[in-house]
Amino acid sequence: xxxxxxxxxQPRSGSAFVISVVMxxxxxxxxxxxxxxxxxxxxxxxxxxxxxxxxxxYDAEGLKYEKQPHLGSSTAKVKVIEFAxxxxxxxxKWKETYFERFQKEFVxxxxxxxxxxxxxxxxxxxxxxxxxxxxxxxxxxxxxWEFMSKLYDHQGDETKIWATPQFLLDFVKNNIGGIxxxxxxxxxxxxxxxxxxxxDFKTAGNxxxxxxxxxxxxxxxxxxxxxxxxxxxxxxxxxxxxxx
Length: 244
Fold this sequence. Notes:
The chain is globular. The chain is of the alpha+beta class. A five-stranded mixed β-sheet has the order 1-3-2-4-5. 34% of the residues are buried. Helix content is 52%, strand content 9%. Helix 4 crosses helix 8 (194-206) and helix 6 packs antiparallel against helix 7. It starts with 11 loop residues before the first helix and ends with a helix. Residues 42-239 form the Thioredoxin domain. The chain crosses the membrane at residues 16-36. It comes from Paenibacillus helianthi. It holds the Pfam family Thioredoxin_4. InterPro entries: Thioredoxin-like_fold, Thioredoxin-like_sf, Thioredoxin_domain.
């Protein structure tokens, strides 16, 4: 049985073959363009280093209180470290819910001194935000706490890259006063404080930190992150120090 022919007398199967070849070629080209173009995620990571790209000597032993932003009296018998990531929604919630209460109950009363240590683990822009905080703290310890509070207020989606160099430059310029902005911009762009961020991260991991926010009281890492557990640990350490 012969195949049907078109009005020109050519077999229809030949035309179908040509059309199929053309369609396949178009699909291959489209797929190549799609898979070879930079994705939105990868383009957003430009200029954001990961920890393997941050080179230099650091020491993951010891808590190095003197290197951390601090709040409260240095004579306080209880030293509290908060391990945090500026991209962490739970860290933002803790700041909004408990920070003022903690300051009134423990910092203002002289019971505890609070230290902030970076545990920037969520994504590369976590490292960038942490380095911005380090740059602020290097200029003014008090301004760091304003930076911390306001950056949480402007926190973006945890699943997206938002703490880019340009975002942080604009954020600090528009929200943080009392610092040398040109110095901050230079430190941020030249990655001046990337190594201290890596040191914080490695130190925290060395002491068992595996998420944020997490707290340490006089060198003892708390298992949970509730305010009640933190308050009880502080009171216990304060009582122990008073009895000595």
